[in-house]
Amino acid sequence: MIGPDKDVDTYLLTRKIVYVVYSVFILGYLRFACCFNKTISRSNDVYLVPEIDGIRILSNEKHEFLQKVPSVVENVFKIGSVESGAMLYEAMKEFEKKSAKADEYIRLIKTKLSEAVKQCIQAAGSEFEQTLQRGLLRAASFGKSFVTELEPHKKFVEMCQILRVLNAVRDYTVGVPLTLVQLEKMSMTVLIDRLILRRQYCLAIRISNYLKIPKTDGESRILAHWACYKVQQTNKDDEDIAQAIAAKLGDTPGISYTEIASKALDCGRTQLTIRLLDYESKAADQVPLLIEMKKNQLALEKAIESGDTDLVYMVVMDLKEKQPLKEFLMTLRHFPIALSLFVKYCKEQDLKTLENLYKIDDQFLNLGLLHLHDSCTKTTFDDRTACLKESLKYFNQGNLLFPKQIVEEQIKLLERQKLFEEQLRLPGLSGLSVSDTIFQCVYKGAFKEAEQLRKEFKVPDK
């Protein structure tokens, strides 16, 4: 960096550097891409920024680029040059004058026409002045009409596209003065990223479409960045921003409204986030963000609408963790589909919660059946009897006569089986049906007890 300094030596050194640079420029080995000042004001800081093919000179007033004249440009424009590119350039100028000398120049480089075209194309890419670019490209176009090879034609089209992009970004309203070498080094994707950072979204989209870059890497990605910038504008209404984004993006492939909504959420704009999520077509992306926003009921609605049971379970389990049990169960009552899925889950994983759910709704039949089913999993007499008595209690509360009678008879049968096992030493009776119990009694010779069971449980003779 060279900056203002009260020290006289520093000032003289600054003047000396400028003088040396100017002298070299006069000799023709270096060139400036912009206007050149012979002196540098002491009141301005000057920064020298090295580049791959030159050096940038930045001040408060100007941005200049100093570089060695590319060899291909020197070959074309050097005085007395006999390079094929220089001859082709002269031939083009004579042709425009309708002079016969054009034919003479072409004959001189007839065997090197392909090389001459390539030189003119490369020289055009190395120039900043659009007038020189057009002249060199006209020369290349003139020369390639005599060439049968495909490569020069292809390079000509590519260079025209690249120059159109370079000239667009070099404009003072954009302010990205790149050379061809720098662009090739950084790639077109990086250039588009720089335009996005400068909020030159329109130009970035035009370039990506002009170069036929895939939408996922080009237009869609740029529009997503534009939308993320849009949601940060605090001076506009949420509804207006949401409508503007939806109108611009529509169903453009490769764009996730969830990512844009996340950006809006980071900015504290909850309503805008919800509106943007309404445009998201993938429920799997909508639901997690709604859960993060603690909009659980809305998340549950979206999950149910999607028909994805995994999403429904995800929201339900999140609600179960965050809400008190009673409040959670009351919430599920408003969503029958979610409730039925949760009941299915509880039957396999959490019977205690299922019992609480049935109690809230006074579902005495289901409560009784739940304990009845639980009794079948028990192995001891006391556990089975306890479950059956609990089941009987709920059947009584619900005034359910038939299941009540069945459970009473089952309890009576278990008691008889236990009695026979202890008094008659008949092991293995517990858990058997009435018929099997009678059969075992007869088989062991306990005819009196078998007859007693037959009468007590009204087993028919057949």
From TrEMBL:
Pfam families: Vps16_C, Vps16_N. Residues 255-462 form the Vps16 C-terminal domain. GO terms for cellular component: endosome; HOPS complex; lysosomal membrane. Residues 41-155 form the Vps16 N-terminal domain. One of its GO terms (molecular function) is actin binding. Gene3D superfamilies: Vps16, C-terminal region (1.10.150.780). InterPro entries: VPS16 (IPR016534), Vps16_C (IPR006925), Vps16_C_sf (IPR038132), Vps16_N (IPR006926). GO terms for biological process: endosomal transport; intracellular protein transport; vacuole fusion, non-autophagic. Belongs to the VPS16 family. This is Vacuolar protein sorting-associated protein 16 homolog. It comes from Paramuricea clavata.
